[in-house]
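Try this one yourself first.
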């Protein structure tokens, strides 16, 4: 539990810096320092909570995509973002993809492809 609190605090502190410097949390987790390994484990856990926040990576070029369903779900997230609760809702495009599966499968794919940035909810 102490590690989780520490990571939550670190993520909270870094979130503002990350958005200003356009460094993704995935890039940070790939750096070689002791805390990055715990951060990588937390990211790879694929846990999505209602209070988590997702936004389109400003460095991702939407015109690179050819599949309309991929473009539309990313435009739905947009620059201002969506919450985990939004993703989980029945009307979320992440729950209505041609290949089926849950929102988790599709949002995790977008995160791994650096299309979407995932900000974990900071617990108080």
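Now uncover the answer:
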């Amino acid at each position: 539990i102490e590690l989780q609190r520490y990571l939550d605090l670190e993520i909270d502190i870094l979130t503002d810096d990350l958005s200003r410097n356009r460094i993704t949390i995935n890039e940070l987790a790939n750096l070689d320092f002791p805390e990055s390994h715990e951060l990588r484990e937390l990211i790879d856990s694929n846990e999505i909570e209602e209070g988590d926040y997702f936004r389109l990576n400003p460095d991702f070029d939407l015109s690179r995509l050819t599949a309309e369903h991929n473009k539309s779900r990313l435009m739905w997230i947009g620059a201002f973002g969506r919450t985990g609760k939004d993703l989980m809702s029945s009307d979320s495009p992440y729950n209505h993809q041609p290949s089926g599966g849950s929102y988790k499968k599709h949002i995790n794919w977008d995160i791994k492809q650096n299309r979407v940035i995932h900000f974990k909810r900071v617990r108080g």
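Discussion: DSSP finds six helices and three strands in the chain. The mean pLDDT is 79.
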